């Protein structure tokens, strides 16, 4: 008998910030059972797919019982169908919702089902998830972007920029790169401790010290790189996630509260240019607001041939918005967050469009994560070449890195792109 979906259900579990989220479970006719937990973002783009919350007295309004109930609506249409046609199943989910942003079912309901179907299908075939989703061509171990100093919406401190990351480039394997970056992380902790700074952690495992301006975190990280025995710019480079939409006002401009100044788009761009001249920065994410397309165009003209310019809030993993960016010559890379768009298939469509147009892809977690390591397999499946899933500390982050270590041991012909990833890396 042909395999079919026998049951789908969901329950409310907790994410790494202590907020409720959806865990969906799929059971196949051969008894295979698989679950997936949906992440949740703190710094979110206006055009992301809707995360459905109950907005009642439970969990301060953040409960997801409605989204879990909506999984039963999805189940009514999918039970009895083959689990092996992911695109067709995801289209049915999209059609059930009937909106362009999952405002009926909730993207948390849709994605939970989509992820768990893929995982159940792979499990029933006794093959890894990355192999099921990526086929024989799933061979690339991603270069990690480790968020080791947190600011902005990810931490309660004076730093405006949201993430200061390191990228280990001059290494031959993922495991070597992970080791080097972890050594930098521990040296960073020691430097902060000796200097009298807090070594408490932000949402994504990075440190969240109060520093005098937005440049000081870079200086401290470079000191940690040196203390760990590596060369900044050669072995390990810097990446920033500015998350500028969080401090942008259409009338006033960009308010850098940590530096007590307000900048126009052109002034902020020149600030980035000066930082890139002084420090080994190879990637800037959301350097300008999602609403500042003219500014993005100027930023792309100024720095697009020198470094990676990543659109997150700008593109929200949406292929239609990405196409606008391609047409306008805006940015040269896109952050990939499945819960911004709603299903696995739609995520894959966006990645294909980006790769066809030479836009780099960075598979990404959210600040509200779980022990679910789906995106580690997904990054390898789609050969994104990069992954962003926090610092090395906190179990919900290390789960992804540990899964990638496991995948690396399985891939006989796997490759770590390292310094070949970025032309200027």
Structure in words:
- The chain has 425 residues and is an alpha/beta fold.
- It has 2 domains: 5-126, Enolase-like, domain 1; 136-420, TIM Barrel (Alpha-Beta Barrel), CATH 3.20.20.
- It contains 13 helices and 17 strands.
- The protein has helices spanning 65-78, 86-97, 107-124, 129-134, 174-194, 216-227, 265-278, 293-303, 319-328, 338-341, 344-356, 374-381, 395-410; strands at 5-14, 20-28, 33-37, 140-141, 143-144, 146-150, 163-168, 236-241, 248-249, 253-256, 261-263, 281-285, 308-311, 333-336, 360-364, 385-388, 415-416.
- Strands 5-16-15-14-13-12-8-7-6 form a 9-stranded mixed β-sheet. Strands 1-2-3 form a 3-stranded antiparallel β-sheet, with helices on one face.
- Helix 5 (174-194) packs across helix 6.
- The model has no long low-confidence stretch (mean pLDDT 95).
What tags apply to this protein structure?
9-stranded mixed beta sheet, alpha/beta, TIM Barrel, 425 residues, 2 domains, 3-stranded antiparallel beta sheet
Give the amount of beta strand, in percent: 15-25%
Q: How many angstroms does the end-to-end distance come to?
A: 52 Å
The CATH superfamily name of the largest domain is Enolase-like C-terminal domain
Q: What count of structural domains?
A: 2
A few lines on this structure:
By secondary structure, the protein is α/β, with parallel strands linked by helices. The protein has helices at 65-78, 86-97, 107-124, 129-134, 174-194, 216-227, 265-278, 293-303, 319-328, 338-341, 344-356, 374-381, 395-410; strands at 5-14, 20-28, 33-37, 140-141, 143-144, 146-150, 163-168, 236-241, 248-249, 253-256, 261-263, 281-285, 308-311, 333-336, 360-364, 385-388, 415-416.
């Amino acid at each position: 008998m042909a395999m079919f979906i026998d049951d789908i259900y969901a329950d409310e579990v907790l994410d790494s910030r202590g907020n409720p989220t959806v865990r969906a479970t799929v059971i196949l006719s051969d008894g295979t059972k698989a679950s997936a937990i949906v992440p949740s973002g703190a710094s979110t783009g206006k055009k992301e797919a809707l995360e459905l919350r109950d907005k009642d007295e439970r969990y301060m309004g953040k409960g997801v019982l409605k989204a879990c109930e909506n999984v039963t609506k999805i189940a009514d249409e999918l039970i009895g169908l083959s689990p092996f046609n992911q695109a067709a199943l995801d289209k049915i989910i999209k059609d059930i919702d009937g909106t362009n942003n999952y405002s009926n079912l909730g993207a948390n309901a849709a994605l939970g089902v989509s992820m768990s179907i893929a995982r159940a299908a792979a499990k029933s075939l006794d093959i890894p998830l990355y192999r099921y989703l990526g086929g024989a061509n799933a061979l690339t171990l991603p270069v990690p972007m480790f968020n080791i100093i947190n600011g902005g919406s990810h931490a309660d401190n004076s730093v405006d920029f949201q993430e200061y990351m390191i990228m280990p480039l001059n290494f031959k394997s993922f495991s070597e790169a992970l080791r080097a970056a972890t050594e930098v992380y521990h040296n960073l902790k020691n430097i902060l401790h000796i200097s009298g700074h807090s070594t408490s952690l932000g949402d994504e495992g990075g440190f969240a010290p109060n520093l005098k301006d937005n440049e000081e975190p870079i200086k401290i990280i470079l000191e940690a790189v040196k203390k760990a025995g590596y060369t900044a710019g050669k072995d390990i480079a810097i990446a920033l996630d500015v998350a500028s939409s969080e401090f942008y006002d259409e009338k006033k401009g960009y308010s850098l509260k940590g530096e007590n100044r307000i900048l126009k788009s052109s002034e902020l761009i020149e600030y980035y240019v000066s930082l890139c001249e002084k420090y080994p920065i190879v990637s800037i994410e959301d350097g300008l607001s999602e609403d500042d397309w003219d500014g993005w165009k100027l930023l792309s003209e100024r720095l697009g041939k020198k470094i990676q310019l990543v659109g997150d809030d700008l593109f929200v993993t949406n292929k239609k918005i990405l196409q606008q960016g391609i047409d306008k010559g805006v940015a040269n890379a896109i952050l990939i967050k499945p819960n911004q768009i709603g299903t696995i298939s739609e995520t894959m469509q966006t990645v294909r469009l980006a790769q066809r147009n030479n836009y780099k892809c960075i598979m990404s977690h959210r600040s509200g994560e779980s022990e679910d390591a789906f995106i580690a397999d997904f990054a390898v499946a789609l050969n994104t070449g990069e992954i962003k899933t926090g610092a090395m500390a906190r179990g919900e982050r290390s789960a992804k890195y540990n899964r990638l270590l496991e995948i690396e041991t399985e891939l006989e012909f796997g490759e770590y792109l390292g310094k070949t990833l970025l032309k200027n890396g």
